[in-house]
Amino acid sequence: MVSRMRYLAVALVLMNACEVRFGGDGAEEADNKNVSSAPEVPAQPTSGTIHGQPFAYEDASIDEGILKLRQGEDFFADLEVTLFLWLDDKTQVPEGRTWDIDCQDGWTSEVPHLHIAWREDGQSMPEHDNIMCDYSLFLEFGEETADKKLPGTLLLKAPTLDTELAGRFEATIEGFRIVDGQVDLSQDDMEVAQYLAEEWLSGQHGSAIEIEDRSLGWLELEEREGRQQAGYFVYWWRPVDGTETRFSKLQFSKNGGLWQVERELEPWQVPDAHPLSTPSSLSASFQYRAARRFEEEHRAARGVSPLFVIRIQVSYNPTTGLAEAVVRYTRDPERAREANKLMGGGDEEHASVRYLFRTNASHPANKDPESWTLDRRLEPNEEVDMRSGRVVAG
User: Fold this and answer.
1) Which residues are paired to 295 by β-bridges?
2) Are 58 and 146 contacting, i.e. CB atoms less than 8 angstroms apart?
3) What is the SS3 assignment for 249?
4) How far is CA 366 from CA 358, 371, 375, 383, in A?
């Protein structure tokens, strides 16, 4: 059983004259006076305007009851509309469901929240706006396809947001979900990893456990050609009948389209030193070799005591033939537990070691990882000048 879900909808039910019609399996039907015939939706990809700007949908997703339509390829979309659908069970996909809403005078818990985002010319970060009512919506979903897409049709009019959309879309099904009573292990989602972690740790330790926290990790959520999807996390947990909190370093892999726990690392092991496949890129190779050297030095000096690497930062210049890897770490479990809560900062809170790499190729511009060697550990007072290719004492 999954210990937590990512979204908790807290609904405030207000008296209003909002007309709502639901359709589909398990849906509630409003009074007949609120039911209208389904409108005609253009048989073309969803388009229109968002915040007065021309919009043509390029990508759509539905994740635990949150529908997004986007335009733009960057991490932040150029234009985006989001509907929070407040599903009773967010682990299910709303196949065959219909929302027919004309909300003008107030909001009820059945009415989706409407959010829009847009970027003005030259902006890197988007602007946002949202409403809980004062819009009309017709939204209808079809049946899930074999490649985990959910087709739908949309008519949306929100004059106060200067937004109007109409057309058809196909949303990628994302997030944690349950199919036929089983967790869908093919989903690229961190909640799937947490579910697997609970199952693994309960099995390994012979009793039910509760995960308290997750730290210091990542999960490869996108498929890349020639690269296996993998990841790792440090989980902080305790038996449900106990009080002692422990930690475990778990590595994950996706094989045959399904996520699994690959192995549990020792407390002193550095995950970057134990990849599931040999790193092929230059930067990843530097991280791997620095992690291995650091782990070896730790074992020689401190045995099996815990070690937590916060991050490994790499800089290099193939032309001058120098590279530097900075390993930031802590040996304190509590600091490791808090590391991910520092929003990417807090490097000054952690110790660090630095390693120098040199290329042994006859042509320094060679970017083949095999042409580089880990030269030595840098002294605290040494600085690497990437432009000149010199190491100087500070």
Assistant:
1) none
2) no
3) strand
4) 11, 7, 17, 23
